[in-house]
Amino acid sequence: MPSFVMPTSNQGDGHPSPTAVSAVGLRKSYGDKTVLDGIDLHIPAGSVFALLGPNGAGKTTAVKILSTLITADAGDLHVGGHDLAADPQAARAAIGVTGQFSAVDGLITGEENMLLMADLHHLSKSEGRRVGVELLERFDLVEAAKKPASTYSGGMKRRLDIAMTLVGSPRIIFLDEPTTGLDPRSRHTMWGIIRGLVSDGVTVFLTTQYLEEADELADRIAVLNDGKIAAEGTAEELKRLVPGGHIRLRFTDPVAYQSAADALREVTRDDEALSLSIPSDGSQRELRSILDWLDSAGIEADELTVHTPDLDDVFFALTGPANVPNQPKESLR
């Protein structure tokens, strides 16, 4: 599988953005199983970086290494400007981690969970209470603060989990599949929280299996497959790697369908559905050209839809044959 790497993003003044997380040649194996095979990552400060990949691709392993929970076999790794090999403790002071499984203690209240985290950060009692109150307010948990966390919904537990992560005011936060299992409303609430963190200058390293989530949130995305980075770039850059965009014309009049099929070149016919697919990058220029041609030829299509590759297409193309059918997402025009 070829590897595609996009250029490093720059600030508006043309200078490279400060790097919050850097990994060069990151390797990790368990026995004879290579999980991470020399990957490189460079994440600008104050951005959202999403790491995508199928189950078992090594996403959680990467998070555990960069958040100092486990050590790498090899690699030059820096987090928050600190060398993980030389000074992991300094890196820990700059980061927060919310894993796949909640760190919330269900036997105590939300408020007590916050105070416990404040104690772990060696905050004074007064400072711990102040920070706890501010974060509970920020995450809309004041009404539930004195209730056992076991009574919280999944979305509330996730919000409390992230609130606890923020007690130490980390500048870099690792969110490992933070919205897995949440309903759509809770997921959108979480997206708003993540955007708010970034607007405060926090760097977010996100792993997710929801491609829509990466498309919505991430400034840059990397696709991890078989222990290697298969591609990296913005969502739009990644989508341009995958061919297959097309415009679909559907007719109800067989005569109009046949006239269009005879006149247009490089079309894929579906005689049963009376539809034609024309290769296209989905640009406004191409769309206008086809509409102008239909008008000049006096041919009227009953429906026109545009399909451009999305992150699903990118994911399936870069991680091997899909086990589920690829269902193009089309927008009605």
UniProtKB/TrEMBL annotation:
Residues 1-21 are annotated as: Disordered. Residues 21-251 form the ABC transporter domain. GO terms for biological process: response to antibiotic. GO terms for molecular function: ATP binding; ATP hydrolysis activity. InterPro entries: AAA+_ATPase, ABC_transporter-like_ATP-bd, ABC_transporter-like_CS, ABC_transporter_ATP-binding, P-loop_NTPase. GO terms for cellular component: plasma membrane. The keyword Ligase does not apply. Keywords: Antibiotic resistance, ATP-binding, Nucleotide-binding, Transport. It comes from Streptomyces jumonjinensis. Pfam families: ABC_tran (PF00005). PANTHER family: ABC TRANSPORTER ATP-BINDING PROTEIN, DOXORUBICIN RESISTANCE ATP-BINDING PROTEIN DRRA. Residues 1-12 have a biased composition (Polar residues). It is a peripheral membrane protein. SUPFAM superfamilies: P-loop containing nucleoside triphosphate hydrolases. It is found in: Cell membrane. This is ATP-binding cassette domain-containing protein. Signal peptide: none annotated. The keyword Transferase does not apply. It comes from the Bacteria.
